[in-house]
Specification:
With about 270 residues, the chain is mainly alpha-helical. The protein contains nine helices and seven strands, in the order ββααααβααββααββα. The protein is about 60% helix and about 5% strand. The N and C termini lie far apart (about 45 Å).
């Protein structure tokens, strides 16, 4: 696949960058819409989203570079070429969460109510962003036969895009896209549960994504490694266990305590 969407004055505009931007814009629109339902000021959400995105991108890049330092040590300036790919979602989630937590603490806002509202946006943005990997010809899986891919009913254009240097590969980016999109539907449905507790949507998001990522990661050929282990699988296990325990603890609250459906009634002053 051609990673370049178009060129202007010798400057290449890549699919990867455009798709990430689209994911960010759609994610913001969805978050702002949900936040409005819960009486959060638009300015508060915009500022929070802005800093979370900046922090998330920095974290995603740092995480990727740390585990791929051999690729950058001879040319440190290439660290800043994020349009060429090289973002790790777990780093983005970690830095983004810390940014949200700090911002919410500053204005005395419940961090987990905000992360709950953002789950659909995050997962949808992840799904859209995975197509950037497709155009970059990265984040694919191990070698596979044409027949195997056809048996999975994968669209022909994706199979053709996964024909790299004379071999077919599993389109793990596509598997994760499908998993994320199903997750978006699940979160949208669960969000309407009358007795859903604040924090439980965040737990479901973490469990859903971690479960799928653990198995999809086993097929990838570009995993970030820690010793002989795939880092994404280690993090997925840790996040899944933490989220499961948190979900169970939240479930022990009384039926009408800490409900997600309760609107924000505090005045947030900037």
């Amino acid at each position: 696949m051609n990673p370049i969407l178009f060129s202007i004055g010798g400057f290449d505009i890549k699919w990867y960058s455009v798709l990430i931007l689209i994911g960010v814009i759609i994610g913001y629109m969805l978050l702002q819409r949900e936040a409005t339902k819960h009486n959060y000021p638009k300015d508060f959400i915009f500022n929070l989203f802005f800093w979370a995105i900046i922090s998330g991108f920095i974290g995603a890049r740092i995480y990727y570079v740390v585990f791929n330092w051999s690729l950058y040590q001879s040319d440190p300036l290439s660290i800043f070429k994020i349009w060429e790919g090289g973002l790790a979602i777990h780093g983005g989630l970690l830095f983004g969460f810390f940014s949200i937590m700090a911002y919410c603490h500053k204005y005395n806002v419940n961090t987990f109510k905000i992360t709950d509202m953002a789950t659909v946006s995050i997962l949808l943005a992840q799904a859209i962003g995975r197509w950037g990997n497709f155009f970059n010809g990265e984040a694919h899986g191990v070698e596979a036969s044409l027949q195997t891919l056809q048996n999975y009913h994968i669209p022909t254009f994706i199979i053709q895009g996964m024909y790299i240097n004379g071999h077919y590969y599993h389109p793990t980016f596509f598997y994760e896209f499908i998993w994320c999109m199903i997750g978006v539907i699940v979160l949208l449905l669960v969000r309407h549960y009358k007795y859903l507790k604040v924090g439980q949507l965040s737990c479901i998001y973490l469990m859903w994504y971690s479960f799928g990522r653990f198995f999809i990661e086993s097929l990838r050929t570009d995993s970030l490694m820690l010793g002989g282990f795939r880092m994404a699988q280690i993090v997925s296990i840790v996040l899944f266990v933490i989220a499961l325990l948190a979900f169970m603890i939240l479930s022990r609250k009384s039926k009408f305590e800490g409900l997600y459906s309760e609107p924000n009634n505090q005045q947030i002053r900037f």
